[in-house]
């Protein structure tokens, strides 16, 4: 059992000794014992347990620990049915990792890393077990490939020569939700970058060239040595599954600058397109046809067939469970839905599933 708020209230002398634990807290404890796929931890105020999926996720690290060793964990449940505090070493490690990454960004701390892979958009590195991307335009002038005519295959050949070489980099962007890290080498040359950035302004519209395509968006070269990111959510008003379906490296595009943070430029393509939400004539209760795009833990994303650019969510509760949802509908097929919530100002659309009748299948 753990010491909770009521226990502290009845025993005020505890107030100066213990911090009342909360779900999500990062806590340290000493390994008491190991039994099969369960590890018991002395937290001081109670006994914690790492078992099940959490044990499997942290198995390699836990194998290296002995009884009496200290471990850092995260509380995922304050008290389970057996009275133990449920803990996770993986979640604790993940939170610690992103806090450290955030500190590196804030301090603009240089880190030495070795290039692992190359693609037409840049180089791939690994920092503390997580891979990150160094876009072509974030290379220093020393390493930037100078290829006549901008031939993409020749650029890739030049980049491949860097595999195995050590670079001094900084982290300029992190996205813990998508587990993405963007590195920069040229940020070690701040004066030159500032001179180039001085020609650009937020809300300005410029022509650029697609220089890299990744899962979370596309990189656009505005000029030699200066690049911005169009996040996948800024590519189009419609739901985009794969940026490579829309663009290829070398494509010319018009972009709008939506933010400049240090030497990081955030761009938008959809901001230059008409917002389909503003002209859509939808009301609560309307029946629409929806194309199933993808599933996640919240439900299924639906693209409206009659309204180009509009997509919404049909919550998992519409299907009783996630498993029932996947059994009932299929990605790439169209089903009837009813509008539950339509808020064009906030681009919010909630849909109710009306039945299994398939209207048509999209190849």
Automatic annotation (TrEMBL):
<dbReference type="GO" id="GO:0003676">
    <property type="term" value="F:nucleic acid binding"/>
</dbReference>
<dbReference type="InterPro" id="IPR012340">
    <property type="entry name" value="NA-bd_OB-fold"/>
</dbReference>
<feature type="domain" description="S1 motif">
    <location>
        <begin position="101"/>
        <end position="186"/>
    </location>
</feature>
<feature type="domain" description="S1 motif">
    <location>
        <begin position="285"/>
        <end position="354"/>
    </location>
</feature>
<feature type="domain" description="S1 motif">
    <location>
        <begin position="24"/>
        <end position="90"/>
    </location>
</feature>
<protein>
    <recommendedName>
        <fullName>S1 motif domain-containing protein</fullName>
    </recommendedName>
</protein>
<dbReference type="Pfam" id="PF00575">
    <property type="entry name" value="S1"/>
</dbReference>
<dbReference type="InterPro" id="IPR003029">
    <property type="entry name" value="S1_domain"/>
</dbReference>
<feature type="domain" description="S1 motif">
    <location>
        <begin position="203"/>
        <end position="270"/>
    </location>
</feature>
<dbReference type="InterPro" id="IPR052757">
    <property type="entry name" value="Ribosomal_protein_S1"/>
</dbReference>
<dbReference type="InterPro" id="IPR035104">
    <property type="entry name" value="Ribosomal_protein_S1-like"/>
</dbReference>
